[in-house]
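Sequence, please.
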């Protein structure tokens, strides 16, 4: 399972979702879905914009955890 750690990164920067939207131009609904780990997909463009704004690597935002059920 892929986990989105955007909430953790924003907390560390002390940024709101709105601040990330302002800095990246990504729609608020898209950021909110990522923040709450409800997104089913993310574009490479948006992922790159987020990494650039947060000055981080993809692995700081997306992590893979083993599936608990088989």
């Amino acid at each position: 399972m892929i986990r989105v750690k955007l909430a953790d990164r924003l907390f560390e920067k002390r940024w709101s979702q709105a601040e990330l939207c302002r800095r990246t131009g990504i729609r608020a609904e898209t950021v909110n879905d990522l923040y709450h780990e409800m997104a089913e997909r993310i574009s490479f463009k948006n992922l790159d914009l987020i990494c650039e704004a947060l000055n981080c690597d993809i692995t700081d935002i997306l992590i893979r955890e083993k599936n608990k059920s088989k």
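Residues 24 and 49 are 6 Å apart (CA to CA).
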